[in-house]
Write a structure and sequence with these properties.
By secondary structure, this protein is α+β, with helices and mostly antiparallel strands. Helices cover about 35% and strands about 20% of the residues. It is built from 19 helices and 28 strands.
């Protein structure tokens, strides 16, 4: 099996209205006997199906949260293996299944026979090109290994793909927002290899970076990063916070501890993700060690000593002055078996396939860091200790936030969280608080708000390990775009075999004369109204990308070469009006599907991309 040519078609294309990865696949070396039900190829695949089923069981909650459940692909693959499906169809289904296991969208897929026997075109929906190519290659390698009866570590390979997806695609927060936008028909453009995304086009555009928006104040973000300043502001308006103050050195930390009263918490002044935090400290020795750990893991950003607040950690997400979601977590424990050391028990805990360091991992790895070592010593253990059978050993007091508790938050706590976000000045805020029972007011249980976070992670709310996913991406989109807005500018594509550049210019001039702000691109360059912006590109997609970025454009018009549409897709997600300058269809009785002229095929692909409410104009 040889992948002769693989390319990505962006925007509407001859396959689908979404970007696809298209590969020309040569299957001529495969004799039909190798695909018979009794062949080693089929037998090997039957051995892999239970492994795939296990992987689907482990990753499907994440996929459900982000892209829709992938298990339907597994029965399709089993059916294809049990039938007379050709190898290219199996390749397509396997590629899509691998995409889904990493939480990447793969709803569309199709395989077609070409005009050459045993050579097929395989197309799958593409969300992230580098990752999708890797899935296609891995699926090809699976097929070859099955045919040649070679070893193949499927679990390891899927893990590598998940890691690759984590490296190259948007993170869970940006992804949740982008998918909510796309569900409303709002276009999204990734502007860098990180998480900067433009939502909408032209004069309607907005931008997000993880869960921060272009409405997130830089001042508010700076306030949120300073935990002591945040706490003083919240305390001033009556929001319950722990007593405490910044400290200068380890001795000052112990002095602060005696002022606020034991037990205490020591933490960096600016660090995130629970870094450098030590909880429930009672002694001078613990306090001094915790100060050193906070300086080291907090990268010397200053240290706070605060009153220790008992209870479970919670994260409340506030968007636009409303509570949208809440999640709770539990401490991390291991249970002794009388044989393994604590370090070995932690290693065993981290072997859970749900744990890892990637965005897609639903649980974090448990580290035996300085804070964990302190917890162990308080229980009279070391990492090399072998705890008795059945004894629970506390490793981390703050574990992953895994359970949705949105419906249980007391109204008083909701009001305090909303007030905290407002005081700091954030449009999107993650409120960290401690409560023994989130259903009761904080003041009744010595609960308190600890931090207010700008750009909080949304993953815990999109795909909680326990409970109901919450529409957090939708909430942010609804705040950025009123319900009647799709963020799009009117898009006109001029195509066909006639004088496209002249027609493009005439349409642009006409619209400009009646008062529209017009961006247009043809073979002569890219223009805003009558001003030439650049010479443009040979790629229609790059020209459209430039027009969509311009913040003043109300209407964009682009000359599109039909052959480019066939080779690389349209390059934008929608077409409102298609203007066809000429379509010389031969009058020789052939059906449209029998015509191979690229001008005709490319033009028809553009016309097919126009929705029912759109317009197609044939320009004489």
């Amino acid at each position: 099996m040889i992948l002769l040519e693989t390319r990505v078609l962006l925007g509407p294309n001859r396959w689908a209205p979404v970007p696809v990865l298209e590969s020309r696949v040569d299957c001529r070396e495969w004799a039909q006997s190798e695909l018979d039900q009794a062949s080693p190829f089929r037998q090997r695949w039957r051995e892999w199906i239970p492994v795939f089923a296990t992987l689907v069981g482990q990753t499907s909650p994440l996929a459900k949260g982000f892209v829709g459940s992938p298990p339907h692909l597994l029965p399709q693959l089993e059916q294809a293996l049990a039938s007379s499906a050709n190898l290219a169809e199996i390749l397509e289904l396997c590629t899509r299944l691998l995409q889904s296991l990493a939480g990447v969208g793969a709803q569309f897929g199709e395989t077609r026979q070409t005009e050459v026997a045993h050579i097929y075109l395989v197309a799958v929906e593409s969300e992230e090109q580098q990752f999708d190519r890797a899935c296609l290659k891995t699926a090809r390698d699976l097929c070859l290994s099955a045919a040649h009866e070679e070893p193949f570590d499927l679990m390891c390979v899927v893990r590598d793909l998940i890691t690759l997806a984590d490296d190259v695609r948007l993170g869970p927060s940006s992804l949740a927002i982008v998918r909510a936008a796309m569900a409303r028909g709002i276009p999204a453009m990734r502007l860098n290899r990180g998480s900067l995304v433009q939502l909408g086009e032209g004069c309607h555009q907005r931008r997000v970076w993880t869960a921060e928006t272009d409405a997130t104040s830089a001042i508010a973000e700076s306030i949120a990063q300073d935990k002591d300043l945040t706490k003083r502001l919240l305390q001033a308006v009556g929001v319950p916070v722990p007593r405490g103050r910044p400290v200068l050195d380890a001795e000052d930390a112990w002095q602060a501890a005696t002022e606020v009263g034991l037990p205490i918490t020591v933490k960096p002044r600016r660090a995130n993700h629970a870094r450098g935090i030590s909880l429930d400290l009672y002694t001078r020795e613990e306090t001094l060690s915790a100060f050193d750990w906070a300086v080291e893991d907090g990268e010397n950003t200053g240290v706070l000593v605060e009153q220790y607040i008992p209870g479970s950690p919670h994260r409340l997400l506030v968007v636009g002055g409303q509570l949208i979601a809440a999640a709770s977590g539990e401490p991390e424990y291991v249970v002794g078996d009388g044989q393994l050391t604590i370090a070995e028990l932690v290693e065993q805990l981290n072997s859970d396939p749900l744990r890892g360091e990637n965005y897609a991992d639903r649980l974090s790895l448990v580290a035996l860091d300085a804070a964990a070592l302190m917890e162990l010593r308080r229980q009279s253990f070391e990492p090399e200790s072998i705890p008795p059978d059945g004894v629970r050993i506390l490793i981390q007091r703050v574990g992953d936030l895994t359970s949705d508790c949105t419906a249980n938050v007391h109204p008083t706590t909701v009001a305090q969280a909303v007030l905290a976000a407002k005081v700091v000045g954030l449009d999107v805020a993650g409120i960290d608080l401690i409560a023994e029972d989130i259903r009761r007011p904080l003041n009744e249980q010595r609960g308190a708000i600890l931090e207010v976070n700008a750009g909080p992670s949304l993953g815990m709310h999109v795909a909680p390990l326990h409970g109901t996913p919450q529409p957090v991406g939708e909430a942010i989109i609804n705040q950025l775009f009123p319900s009647n807005s799709n963020g799009r500018v009117l898009t006109i594509i001029v195509t066909g075999g006639g004088d496209r550049p002249s027609v493009t210019r005439r349409i642009a001039e006409t619209l400009r004369e009646v008062g529209h702000q017009v961006g247009w691109a043809s073979s002569s360059g890219i223009y805003f109204n009558e001003i030439k912006i650049s010479d443009g590109s040979e790629s229609d997609g790059e020209n459209l990308w430039a027009l969509r970025l311009h913040p003043r454009i109300e209407v964009m018009i682009c000359e599109s070469r039909p052959d480019q549409v066939l080779n690389s897709g349209l390059g934008c997600p929608h077409v409102d009006i298609a203007v066809v300058t000429s379509l010389p269809i031969p009058d020789d009785g052939r059906l449209l599907e029998e015509i191979q002229d690229p001008t005709i095929l490319g033009t028809l692909a553009i016309v097919a991309a126009v929705p029912p409410e759109g317009i197609v104009v044939f320009w004489a």
